[in-house]
Amino acid sequence: MESRHSLYHVLLLLFCGLSALCQCSATGVEANQTAVLFVNASEASARKIPDTLFGIFFEEINHAGAGGLWAELVSNRGFEAGGPNVPSNIDPWSIIGDESSVIVSTDHSSCFDRNKIALRMQVLCDHRGTNICPDGGVGIYNPGFWGMNIEQGKSYKLVLYVRSQESINVSVALTGSNGLQKLATSNIVAADVSSWTKVEILLEAKGTNPNSRLELRSTTKGVIWFDQVSLMPTDTYKGHGFRKDLFGMLKDLKPAFIRFPGGCFVEGDYLRNAFRWKETIGQWEERPGHFGDVWNYWTDDGLGHFEFLQLAEDLGARPVWVFNNGVSHHDEVDTSAILPFVQEILDGLEFARGDPTSTWGSVRAKMGHPEPFDLKYVAIGNEDCGKSKYRGNYLKFYSAIKDAYPDIRIISNCDGSSSPLDHPADLYDFHIYSSASSVFSNARHFDSTRRSGPKAFISEYAVTGNDAGKGSLLAALAEAGFLIGVEKNSEAIEMASYAPLFVNDNDRRWNPDAIVFTSSQMYGTPSYWMQHFFKESNGATLLSSSLQANPSNSLIASAITWRNSVDNNEYLRIKVVNFGTTAVTLKISISGLDQNTLESSGAIKTTLTSTNVMDENSFKEPNKVSPVKAMLEKVSESMDVVLSPRSLTSFDLLRKSISTSVDPASALIASY
């Protein structure tokens, strides 16, 4: 095999000499328009890519969960967002009626110990007498997270708790934003609700409005208390509470893992506002919620520790739990006092992995999941390596976790890509946010990284700043080049994920993001679509490849073989980023294949590009920058292909046909 590979290099030199277009530089074309890619497909030079290489990172930022993936339609459902003191702000709840007809306040009368705030509605008007209520009554309404998306024919489950010393007749309605369009109605009629009473109503929508609201009204004089008001669509994914369309976009990426729940969300600006897993489990009514002081909004924590583990399971992804290690942005727990924090995390691991008869495993079982979750990765903190207490605290967590769960792989916040870590770890965290040129050039960052010892977890990467906008083609191309470098260095890298994942277009705390949404719409940015080119790489076989081009700063390529689960056929995929402004004719030369291994048909060329490198997708043009597929003709072990300027291109070549019932081209298209 060595002699055959050498023959191709001889042919390369002849080609360079005859054409005077190739000077055998490493990886680039700008002035010249021709390059050569050698791919050695032999097993001897190939190696397996980790099954875990490409996944996703979920952080509660930009209302990614609250008002996003978590399908709860009521914002501030427990009236706790205004803080523990009363009177308090009930925003975004608003009052229907004026001060002569209704007075709304808050008090500490809730029946739930961990969230004592309840709403008190005093109706001053009546359906008879001198102070007649206006048509429809008075009350309160909740607009959700910038409007509730109510769709005709769908069902919505309303759950609330109510109390009053008198009999009640409360009208419930889903309406348009001004209350005029009635989409669904019902009534709560009860003679005795002197104690807190749980009410459940199924509302059937008779119309559609993406900017709806929930109304609770009365025309009867008296005082009514409300608490824990929830409205959920009944068609969430498997009934697990995840918004189906957004979940589907995650599922389509085939993520090998999901890192959660942050990010800075885990740390908190101050420890009092850090994510505490024990406060996010159990019945939703009993969860106190908390104010995320890094991204500055309240979460009811319906999307809690259990739901994140369930999300990973539903996605078929490995959960990676990031937990607080006693360090926030502004305060730290001394190592001498860290043991209670360590115990809290051990309890969290027992909740996820423990026997259903164990203390915390039994809590999980009561929540409907008696089988343990497959939690085998944890990260001790987020971006905390430079904090003074981090290393001391880290070692306490590391020792305790390894003693109790020796199979768990532990991730350090300290970068070990350039020099060895000074503490034990299975993986180390690496983050990169930078300009397009910097991210693209960092494709070679791990070329010299040690192959032994802890592996890299690139848990946050993205192009940011002016190059990125709200999600540009330029950013996606730079990130694709970086990921090709990750692929080629996967001996030293175990995992990689883009950040952030989601943004509600009404609350952009960070730009860019992979998926943009409102209550009723969504689209993927170019960076989202870029990740589709890599979703078959997990567990695939990386082939040896070398790119010969001139100059050496605009092309990068890799080659893998992967098996398509749709048709069970094996494909050879070549990915190339042309970061330059000139079209390139790429000569692909494949060695190491058995004779007649490549099929002449069934090959697909997929391209991500646009007319302007700063083009972005939008709700008006959601697919302006998205993969475009075309049949690839004249497939052979030596062939010429054209790379558009500023483009990411993949070539899927059918290597061995096993299935006869599925058209290979259709199967390839279905795989994206």
Automatic annotation (TrEMBL):
Subcellular location: Secreted, Extracellular space, Extracellular matrix
Catalytic activity, reaction form: Hydrolysis of terminal non-reducing alpha-L-arabinofuranoside residues in alpha-L-arabinosides
EC number(s) per entry: 3.2.1.55
Keywords, sorted A to Z: Extracellular matrix, Glycoprotein, Hydrolase, Secreted, Signal
Gene Ontology biological process terms, A to Z: L-arabinose metabolic process
SMART domains in alphabetical order: Alpha-L-AF_C
Signal peptide from the UniProt entry: 1-26
Predominant location category: secreted
Pfam families: Alpha-L-AF_C, ASD1_dom
Keyword hit for Hydrolase: yes
Start and end residues of each Alpha-L-arabinofuranosidase C-terminal domain: 459-647
GO molecular function, one term: alpha-L-arabinofuranosidase activity
Family: Belongs to the glycosyl hydrolase 51 family.
PANTHER family: ALPHA-L-ARABINOFURANOSIDASE 1
Name of this protein: non-reducing end alpha-L-arabinofuranosidase
Species assigned in the record: Nicotiana sylvestris (Wood tobacco)
Name of the gene encoding the protein in the UniProt record: LOC104243349
